Amino acid sequence: MDLEARAHSEHPDELRLWLRLLTCTQLIEKQVRNGLREQFATTLPRFDLMSQLERAPEGMKMNELSRRMMVTGGNVTGITDQLVTEGLVERVDVEGDRRAWRVRLTPRGRKTFNDMAQQHEGWIVDAFAGLTAREIAQLHKLLGKVKQHSNTPQEVES
């Protein structure tokens, strides 16, 4: 049973919409996870870490990676260790800080990530194939309004 099935007609439309969004997100994420595992023998967290590094060719410190990925430093260290072993990322010293490293994609890692990213994009496009271009634009605009409202500080009643 998916999350949406838990909602009933007596629940507010907003709750039912929220559960539909969560269900769709989980279904698409499951397809992406399966595709990464089957086609590239990798995981979504590894893809996410490489994605962050792809955007920063000079590399990033481990604490910055952890913050951007919104996971603990231990998670980033474990994934980084695996990717270093596979020759996809490398650690380089940070000048002036003997305790810190900067992590960056190797040339092999950059090529591997680009192959994965191209396939990932295709999976996402396929996930929305049931919508017209106009519907996609409309949904994007509407979700932007939700995002904007959610980022606005709400008054708290005392």
How is this structure best summarized?
With about 160 residues, this protein is mainly α. It has six helices and three strands, in the order H-H-E-H-H-E-E-H-H. It has helices at about 15-40, 45-55, 60-70, 75-85, 105-125, 135-150, and strands at about 60, 90-95, 95-105.
Describe the secondary-structure layout.
Elements: H1 13-40, H2 44-54, E1 60-61, H3 62-69, H4 73-85, E2 89-94, E3 97-105, H5 107-127, H6 133-151
Q: What is the overall silhouette?
A: globular
Give helix % range.
55-70%
Instruction: Calculate the mean pLDDT score and round it.
Output: 90
**Gap from first CA to last CA:** 39 Å
| Largest sheet, strands/sense/barrel | 3 strands, antiparallel
Please describe what this structure looks like.
With 158 residues, the chain is mainly α. It has six helices and three strands. A three-stranded antiparallel β-sheet has the order 1-3-2. A hairpin with a 2-residue loop joins strand 2 (89-94) and strand 3. Helix 1 (13-40) crosses helix 5 and helix 2 (44-54) packs across helix 5 (107-127). The chain is globular. It starts with 12 loop residues before the first helix and ends in a 7-residue tail after the last helix.
Kindly list the characteristics that best describe this protein.
158 residues, mainly alpha, globular
